[in-house]
TrEMBL record:
Protein name, UniProt field: AP-5 complex subunit zeta-1
Domain of life, source organism: Eukaryota
UniProt cross-references to Pfam families, sorted A to Z: SPG48, TPR_AP5Z1_C
Species: Dipteronia sinensis
AP-5 complex subunit zeta-1 C-terminal TPR domain residues: 167-518
InterPro entries named in the record: AP5Z1_ARM (IPR055450), ARM-type_fold (IPR016024), TPR_AP5Z1_C (IPR056856)
Domain (AP-5 complex subunit zeta-1 ARM repeats) ranges: 31-154
Length: 567
């Protein structure tokens, strides 16, 4: 018998004897030699490329897997590394022994990784396993990783920067049509997830070896009854921590629906009650008043990078219907973020950039989403964040002509909404912003915000009327009221006056205020002058900025021959 034959016989006997050992039968991972035997048998199968050897090894490894899974709830030893080694064997030789690895993989996530995601060794080994087998997992089990993305987010939220690079390699595999929308909410809520995990650790001890899913299962019947009561009687779910005040009463309670949503292991779609829990305000306030842990600081820095990857994939690979469905979610989440100043700035910046890029790629979205857009315009008074969102939406409405020439009805509705917003602000000397504007500079702050809003609205009205000329008479009336108003900032009524002047020169107005993209059948952008044709025909699009807003005769001393190239 060769040394190789003696080697695999020895390891097979090790696996067989472990099943007869009373201690190892109930906790196989207690013996570290079993992990080495599984790895050695896998290497021998890979070297020998012998299907008979694989068929002989498989029953022993499969039984070991079943025993390990059965012992998870009572085991005091980490089973993650052993199960990952067995799963590698199932993935590579499943076709040879007719073993479907999908149930085994799901069992690993639900019963093992849900208990051991906080173990840094198991977490790192899991990400290495996923990266090594990513191509095979995506081709054979495409729904697996998107289904368990919440569990993998818990893994990276708890283990932080040291696994950042490995997780970023796995991250694209988490995205699928089923996970695309809920994944965004989970990403922007990563800091809140850290708060919830740290709460569990403080109240229940180490997260390693304890199943957070048991909390969800134990409270599920009560939560179901509460939701049914809310549906039929209109009463709201009571705060689980209201009856038991403690030193941590300001943090999330384990029965809180938000708590359950944050700590789930599997993707079950969008959470309709997300960020509506009564305990959320207290939780965020407690997070602000408590010094940030290293884990929190790391996830605050990591989340924007994950969003960069998410949005890059979305623009490149995701279809328009999903992106269109994502934009209202972005509008909702824009003002509901973890209250860290730098984090909020970085996340909002990325949310806006993606939303505007989506409108640029598909201007039809402006018309299709007119209802949520108009709702957000009406909420601009509530907070500075909502005001900034409203300003950007005003810009998008005008820039993309309310959705384009084929969406005249939607453009008219958006125009009417802008008119209403304009008249409301003309009749008011200040905006009802939230309490952040308190103080000696509050009046100047409110005035500046109102002026900025009016400038955006005036510009959007002028652009819409330039694109949809049937709106020109109404636009002249609206802008005329602004131009005659002296209660507004001088910049506002001067801008309205300038736009009224431009409207008297249709060609120049189209060049300045027209859409940035060419219409169908027109190859040249409306706002672009083709100077190369100036020698043969009249060019109407002479840039009005040459005049530099100077009144009186033109100040320039050049001729058209100096501008138009000679042939």
């Amino acid at each position: 018998m060769s040394n190789g034959d003696k080697g695999w016989e020895f390891h097979l006997r090790s696996l067989s004897s472990s099943a007869r050992d009373s201690n190892l039968a109930t906790d196989p991972a207690f013996d570290p030699s079993l992990l080495q035997s599984v790895k050695k048998l896998y290497e021998l199968c890979k070297e020998e490329k012998n299907e008979d050897l694989v068929a002989r090894v498989y029953p022993h490894i499969n039984k070991l897997f079943q025993r390990s899974v059965a012992s998870l709830s009572q085991s005091r030893t980490s089973n993650g590394l052993l199960l990952l080694a067995i799963l590698q064997f199932f993935l590579d030789y499943g076709e040879v022994v007719l073993h479907d690895a999908d149930p085994s993989l799901r069992t690993f996530y639900r019963l093992c990784l849900s208990r051991e995601f906080a173990d840094p060794v198991v977490a790192e080994a899991t990400l290495d396993f996923l990266n090594s087998n990513k191509k095979k997992l995506l081709s054979s089990f495409p729904a697996l990783l998107p289904q368990f993305f919440p569990l993998l987010l818990k893994l990276i939220a708890w283990n932080g920067d040291k696994l950042d690079k490995a997780f970023l390699k796995v991250f694209p595999a988490l995205m699928s049509p089923a996970s695309f929308l809920p994944l965004l909410s989970s990403l922007v809520d990563l800091p809140t997830l850290v708060v919830a995990l740290e709460k569990v650790e403080r109240s229940s001890g180490s997260l390693i070896g304890s199943s957070i899913a048991s909390i969800q299962k134990s409270t599920a019947p009560e939560m179901l009854l509460a939701l049914m009561d809310e549906a039929y009687t209109g009463s709201t779910i009571a705060d689980g921590g209201a009856d038991s005040e403690s030193e941590e009463s300001s943090t999330i309670d384990v029965a809180d629906p938000l708590f359950l949503e944050l700590l789930k292991d599997e993707n079950d779609g969008l959470a309709e009650r997300h960020w509506t829990s009564p305990g959320m305000a207290a939780t965020l306030q407690a997070a602000i008043n408590t010094p940030q842990s290293d884990r929190m600081k790391q996830i605050l820095n990591m989340t924007p990078r994950l969003l960069d990857t998410y949005f890059a994939i979305a623009l490149h690979d995701v279809n328009d219907s999903l992106i269109c469905a994502l934009i209202p979610l972005i509008m909702t989440r824009y003002s509901t973020l973890f209250p860290d100043k730098n984090f909020s700035y970085e996340v909002r910046k990325r949310l806006l950039e993606f939303m505007l890029a989506a409108f640029q790629r598909s201007p039809d979205f402006v018309a299709l989403l007119k209802k949520p857009i108009m709702d957000r315009l009406g909420e601009g008074y509530d907070s500075p964040a909502k005001m900034e969102l409203a300003l950007q939406l005003c810009w998008a409405i005008g820039e993309h002509g309310g959705g384009g020439a084929s969406h005249k009805d939607a453009a008219r509705e958006l125009f009417e909404n802008l008119e209403l917003l304009l008249y409301e602000n003309l009749s008011s000397s200040r905006l009802g912003l939230m309490q952040e504007a308190r103080g000696s500079d509050s009046q100047n702050y409110r005035k500046s915000s109102q002026s900025r809003l009016l400038c955006f609205v005036v510009t959007a009205i002028a652009k819409l009327a330039t694109y949809h000329r049937e709106l020109l008479p109404r636009a002249r009336v609206s802008l005329g009221k602004v131009a005659r108003s002296r209660i507004s900032d001088v910049r506002v009524w001067k801008r309205a006056r300038d736009y009224l002047g431009l409207m008297n020169e249709p060609a120049i107005c189209l060049s300045v205020l027209g859409p940035s993209r060419p219409s169908r059948g027109v190859r040249q952008n409306p706002g672009t002058i083709n100077w190369s044709e100036g020698g043969t025909k009249m060019v109407a699009h002479i840039p009005f900025y040459i005049l530099g807003e100077q009144e009186g005769p033109p100040f320039h001393d050049f001729t058209f021959s100096d501008v138009i190239p000679r042939k």
